[in-house]
Amino acid sequence: MKKFLAVFDGYKFSKSTADYAVQLAQLNNAYLTGVFLDEFIYGTYDWNKIYKTYKDPEAAIKRLELKDQQKRDNAVKLFQHTCSKAGIHFNIHRDKKIAIQELKQESMFADLVIISRHETFSRYREKAPTRFIKDLLGGVQCPVLVVPGQFMPLDKIVILYDGRPSSLHALKMFSYLLENLKQLPVEIFTVNDYAENFTLPHNKLMREFTGRHFPAAKITVVDGNAEEMIIKHLSHHQQNVLVVLGAYQRSELSRFFKMSMADSLMKGLNTPLFMAHSR
Q1: Residue 41 CB-density burial (10 A; 0-12 exposed, 13-18 middle, 19+ buried)
Q2: pTM here?
Q3: Which of 76, 86, 248, 265 has a 20 to 30 A CA-CA distance from 159?
Q4: CB atoms within 10 A of CB 50
Q5: Is the omega angle on the peptide bond into residue 143 within 30 degrees of 0, that is, cis?
Q6: pLDDT tens-digit profile of 194-232?
Q7: 192, 165, 178: which is closest to 246 by C-alpha?
Q8: What SS3 class is residue 189?
Q9: Fold match, 3-147 / 156-276
Q10: Superfamily of domain 3-147
Q11: At the fourth CATH level, which superfamily is domain 156-276?
Q12: What's the rounded Cα separation, in Å, for the pair 216 and 157?
């Protein structure tokens, strides 16, 4: 039985994460762990404002901490209710240390992490991809499904393939972990950068390999700028698409200077992204 992690901020419970995680656990007979990152230094209130505003700041902090604890407890109960109603096997982890460190460690013992692209694990909002998501993708130890803010039943799978080991690894991990999604229409999409060569990289071997895993897949090859063509192609889909790609292969310094394809897709599209990278 596979083990999937659904990751939550108890103060801002992501119903979309829960819905995607429960559906995928049902379809793939997976054991679902709800990971609630209850980082001890993270609260909904500003300590400085409390000490400036209240005559008895310590009493005010106790009241706010109790309110915060109730929010986190209610989020756990909501997840438990959702899983019980769906009839899936599940459990709860409430990690109280530094959120990103706890999640990276959890990922060492999981097959898939499912998380909202909007998670920050702070009081502040950020545009996707958030710093937390970038940090997670740079050091996670298993594939990740980054989901949008609203759940949409999936209609199609698009696998981005560029001939590199990372894209093949992502294709394999998707095939192994989410096998029952292969009943959906599958498209393998390749961009040859202005090469005017409309064939797949490693054409014969790739067609043989995908024929075993995705025998009915449609193969599309275009030329142009990869980032532009991929976003254009995906933006024109009427279906609710799940995109499969290798991600975050470069060093941290390289990522600082050049945005990854995953970053671009999170900025430009509102679709689930399945990402995996070999080390």
Answers
A1: exposed
A2: 0.92
A3: 86
A4: 16
A5: no
A6: 666 678 899 999 999 999 999 999 999 998 888 899 999
A7: 165
A8: strand
A9: yes
A10: HUPs (3.40.50.620)
A11: HUPs (3.40.50.620)
A12: 12
